[in-house]
Amino acid sequence: MHVDVTASPDVPREQVAAARERMQSLERSARQPPTSARVALRRGSNRSKRSFVADASVVFDGRVLAAHAAGPSADEAVDEVVDRLRRQLRRVVDAEVARRNEPAVIQKALADLEHDTRHRPEARTKPPEEREIVHENDVVVPEPSRYSAPLPLSTARTEMDELDHRFLYFIDADDGRGKILYLRHDGDYGLVEPE
Questions:
Q1: Would you give the DSSP letter of residue 193?
Q2: Which of 60, 78, 151, 182 suits a disulfide with 34, CB 3.0-4.6 Å?
Q3: Rounded distance between C-alpha atoms, residue 129 and residue 109, angstroms
Q4: Are 94 and 75 in contact (CB under 8 A)?
Q5: Contacts of 25 (CB under 8 A, 6+ apart)
Q6: What is the pLDDT of residues 111-165, one digit of tens each?
Q7: What's the rounded Cα separation, in Å, for the pair 119 and 81?
Q8: How far apart are CA 66 and CA 88, in angstroms?
Q9: Distance between CA 170 and CA 186 in Å, rounded?
Q10: Can you tell me the distance from the alpha carbon of 140 to that of 121, in angstroms, rounded to the nearest whole number?
Q11: What is the pLDDT of residues 20-55, one digit of tens each?
């Protein structure tokens, strides 16, 4: 994330560098970092205990989040605006999570999924009766089969069709060896078997 820092001449240079690092720490506050950040440091108009002012903003998911704080040093003012921005980021992210189960959000996700599947060749478009088995030689690590007895290849294929599995590990009844039957992207079955 790019951080733009501006400071009045009376702000110590080391505090300007520290402000950039503190603002960059906001990258870890959300699943995706803000795209940009800005912070402006200056002396306050009154010479009270809170004589430094920090104004900061970040752009997150198309939104601008902003914070303002004052403190006895530029470092403390920046710490305060970073804390405020971090809380705002969490509220935005939490609100997105809370909306996940709303009917409108679910409908949009389903529509997007439908759009994706219409524009991408999908293995499930080939009917089971047209699927062929493509043999592949590969190393298959033996695993216990979930079936009590070895299966003929035709039974494994039928189970994949009926249960709509993407892959199935089984012990082949013909040779007693572990094999993997899977649904390929071209719609046929792939059969991974030991050499």
A1: E
A2: 60
A3: 31
A4: no
A5: 82
A6: 777 766 555 555 456 777 888 877 776 555 555 666 778 888 888 888 888 877 7
A7: 45
A8: 9
A9: 22
A10: 28
A11: 899 988 887 777 788 889 999 998 776 656 688 999
